[in-house]
Specification:
The complex is a heterodimer of chains A (317) and B (188). Chain A has 317 residues and is mainly alpha-helical. Chain A has helices spanning 12-22, 35-54, 56-60, 69-94, 100-108, 126-146, 152-180, 184-203, 215-220, 228-245, 271-281, 285-298, 300-316, and strands at residues 256-257, 264-265. Chain A contains 13 helices and two strands. A two-stranded antiparallel sheet of chain A has the order 1-2. Chain A is globular, with a radius of gyration of 21 Å. Chain A starts with 11 loop residues before the first helix and ends with a helix. Chain B is an alpha+beta fold and 188 residues long. In chain B, strand 5 and strand 6 (100-108) form a beta hairpin. The longest helix of chain B is centred in the last third of the chain and has 20 residues, at 168-187. Chain B has one domain (3-163): Phenylacetic acid degradation B (Ubiquitin-like (UB roll)), CATH 3.10.20.520. Chain B has a four-stranded antiparallel beta sheet with strand order 2-1-3-8. Classes of the chains: A mainly alpha (317), B alpha+beta (188). The interface between A and B is large, with 56 and 48 residues.
Chain lengths: 317, 188
């Protein structure tokens, strides 16, 4: 049961709300909604926004070291998109009454969660290709589902994000294809990146359905339309044949094709590692938050200057 | 966090994709004033082509109404006949999955009256509005048509922001075809 989900189901407002959702209507900010619906959405959307913002850091580290001008332009504009997507999502959370100040404070103080995958380091240039193909590919699956979400502002933000992110995946996939057909060093580099990013990417979909107590309510409210395990299965089925055809291997000795169902079955996910990273003890959690806080503090003089300018414009008319 | 952590007021942003289509709401930005709001809106919402103009409106200047029809009542309407009027911009969400799209202007003595007028004079009976927004025309700050090229032109040249710029799909098809040929030859 979701915290706060204690409203009487006899309540006519709650019944009318459930009926609207069942009819496929979108909920808008000023409409009546159960407190638990609002809380769940603020939690999900703000975490999603933080993920876009923190997600700039692992890739941003390679902008100055991109091997060509073309690759640098592509990476710059991908990272710039993530900043914009964070803005779209903070906007959607604000329509529910969360303030920007609260959300930024929660992120910087370490109280907010964001996608655990961004707490892993980017050790080589091949990581940029693999992140684009795997991590953005996984994010697009999740976001394509959320574009159908029952909350209007979140669904509209997702539609825009999905349209813009399709190039993020394509540029990564193109890099992996080229490197996997390149020199022995390049092939080794891209295989190493695949080995390091495969499991963190599978963890992006979240805990197994049996350990995800919020999911049934979120599905009933049409905030989500598919479960964590369903999305993870779709991702694996899409990716495994493509990775194999490139002559790359995956770091899962138990991975096998289930001939009966046609689904690829993965080995056991290390959930201890997942919860360790979510809990703040991944390889880069401290670095990521320190970088966010530094960027915020370093920008303080810009905010002060803009505020002073705006105040003077008002004074002088 | 340390100094000056305000994120400034919120401005709703309306974007026009082409000159022959209406402005529509795309989201909001924070800024110390309308001029910076317009600049931020350009950076946040125009990283892709298809922008002919932007409007920003302080979020608190917008009155929203969904569902029930507002009724003129209370003190506000008593002087309605004599009060001076001003222009209000009207936006309406018509489709469940759509956003708020500019519909037109009404002259009214107050935002509440503007909503009532908008719903009676600007609604489409075939596709009735679901959510209505009105704001005083004087609260809207618009991008300058003279500056459209410098504001929105640069996004058009950045083809690498489109998925079609990459050859991933055709390369993948070619590799799969080659693998199939190799397997066929090996099995012969």
């Amino acid at each position: 049961m979701i915290e706060g989900d204690t409203q009487d189901l006899e309540d006519p407002q709650a019944q009318a709300f459930e009926a609207r959702i069942a009819r496929g209507e979108k909920v808008e900010p000023r409409d009546w909604m159960p407190e638990a619906y609002r809380k769940q959405l603020i939690r999900m959307i703000s975490q999603h926004a933080h993920s876009e913002i923190v997600g700039m850091l692992p890739e941003g580290a390679w902008i100055t070291r991109a091997p060509s001008l073309r690759r640098k332009l592509v990476l710059l504009s991908k990272v710039q998109d993530e900043a914009g997507h964070g803005e779209y999502l903070y906007h959607a959370a604000e329509t529910l009454g969360a303030t920007r100040e609260e959300m930024i404070e929660a992120l910087h103080s370490g109280n907010a969660k964001y996608a655990s995958v961004f707490n892993y380091p980017t050790l080589s240039w091949a990581d940029i290709g693999v992140i684009g193909w795997f991590v953005d590919g996984a994010a697009i699956l999740n976001q394509t589902m959320l574009a159908k979400c029952s909350y209007g502002p979140y669904s509209r933000a997702m539609v825009r994000i999905c349209a813009e992110e399709s190039f993020h995946k394509k540029q990564g996939q193109e890099m992996v294809i080229l490197m996997s057909g390149g020199t022995p060093n390049q092939r080794q580099m891209v295989q190493d990146a695949v080995n390091r990013w495969w499991w963190p990417t599978l963890m992006m979909f979240g805990p197994h359905d049996t350990d995800s107590p919020n999911t049934p309510q979120l599905v009933r409210w049409k905030i989500k339309t598919r479960t964590n395990d369903e999305l993870r299965q779709t991702f694996i089925d899409q990716m495994v044949p493509e990775i194999m055809v490139l002559g790359l291997s995956l770091p899962d000795p138990d991975l096998r094709l289930d001939e009966v169902t046609g689904h690829w079955r993965h080995g056991e996910i290390d959930w201890d590692e997942f919860w360790r990273v979510v809990g703040g003890n991944g390889p880069c959690n401290q670095d990521r938050l320190a970088a966010r806080r530094k960027a915020h503090d370093d920008g303080s003089w810009v905010r002060r200057a803009l505020s002073a300018y705006a105040a003077r414009q008002v004074q002088t008319g | 966090m340390t100094v000056d952590d305000t994120q400034w007021p919120r401005f709703q942003v309306f974007k026009q994709d082409r000159l022959d289509v209406p402005f529509e709401n795309v989201g909001s930005v924070h800024a110390p004033d309308a001029e910076m709001a317009l600049q931020n809106a350009r950076d946040v919402f125009v990283r892709r082509p298809d922008c002919a103009g932007l409007w920003v409106v302080p979020a608190e200047a917008i009155l929203e109404e969904s569902g029930r029809v507002p009724t003129a009542g209370g003190e506000e309407s008593q002087g309605g006949g004599t009060a001076s009027t001003e222009a209000f911009l009207v936006f309406v969400k018509q489709d469940q999955s759509g956003t708020h799209i500019y519909r037109g202007q009404v002259e009214a003595p107050s935002p509440t009256h503007a909503l009532i007028l908008a719903r009676s004079s600007l609604d489409d009976p075939d596709r009735p509005g679901i959510v209505w927004w009105v704001c005083p025309a004087r609260a809207v700050v618009r991008s300058e048509p003279d500056e459209a090229e410098s504001m929105f032109g640069p996004a058009r040249g950045k083809l690498y922001r489109q998925p079609g710029y990459y050859r991933a799909d055709s390369m993948m098809r070619a590799i799969k075809a080659r693998r199939r040929r190799e397997q066929d030859e090996a099995s012969e």
